[in-house]
Amino acid sequence: MEYLDIHKKAKRKKGLEMLLGSDWELETAGGSTGEAFSARDGERKLFLKCNSSPFLAVLSAEGIVPKLLWTKRLTNGDVITAQQWISGRKLKHSEMKQPEVASLLGRIHRSPELLDMLKRIETEVKTPEVLLRRLYTYSLPMEREAPILFKALAFLESWKSTVYPEQFVVCHCDVNHNNWIMDEKEGLFLVDWDGASVADPALDLSILLYWYVPQTEWGEWLEAYTFELSNDLLRRMHWYAVLHTVEWLLSEGDHEDDEHLNGWLSYLDALVGKNLA
């Protein structure tokens, strides 16, 4: 399998070299999928992605991702998108509290253009039932972490009917600080939209607020997002915080050291112990 992956990546890179011409130098641009590259020709530089979602075009038009320059299809069927290269940096943990982050996320969640386009591509709305059902596709461990995970799953089941929003919106679904890029002119972009879904805005808000913003500052942060903190939003965010933590433990927890894993289990236990009423 590993040999096939390496062979596929090599063929993809060769196809890009033929598409761009010999003047361009290609390098992988992070990640293990082999689908993202940087291309340089002197002072010119591009960010290339294989098989990006058609959603990228409307994200570019809205100024949420770096400008889309062109889209081309290779002879093997791969669709290549080229975006303007941004000389910028990822946001630090502490910078996620900035009102600019809240403002951009609020604009995304309220955009009818984004919602209309994503609904054409992603037909399944990620309701609480759908997301909870996805958790059961993971193999549940039979070790020390199993009791708290079963307790958390029971918590999610018991509260799922109470956490429906008034409206489902476009959610990025992975708003961690590594996906927020600030360019040299302090323009802000949210990148890596491969996992975007139509879902409750609390799905994004729970990750951002629980992981990056002190609870005493949630109200102020949501003012920049242009939404008022309410008991209903608190309940929904709490439910999604439990969901995200369970999913992380099921998908990634076995790769961490015992101390880190125990910290996440304690965090989950504390979350589940809180009353949502």
TrEMBL record:
<dbReference type="InterPro" id="IPR052077">
    <property type="entry name" value="CcrZ_PhaseVar_Mediator"/>
</dbReference>
<keyword id="KW-0808">Transferase</keyword>
<feature type="domain" description="Aminoglycoside phosphotransferase">
    <location>
        <begin position="55"/>
        <end position="239"/>
    </location>
</feature>
<keyword id="KW-0418">Kinase</keyword>
<dbReference type="GO" id="GO:0016301">
    <property type="term" value="F:kinase activity"/>
</dbReference>
<dbReference type="InterPro" id="IPR011009">
    <property type="entry name" value="Kinase-like_dom_sf"/>
</dbReference>
<dbReference type="Pfam" id="PF01636">
    <property type="entry name" value="APH"/>
</dbReference>
<protein>
    <submittedName>
        <fullName>Thiamine kinase</fullName>
    </submittedName>
</protein>
<dbReference type="InterPro" id="IPR002575">
    <property type="entry name" value="Aminoglycoside_PTrfase"/>
</dbReference>
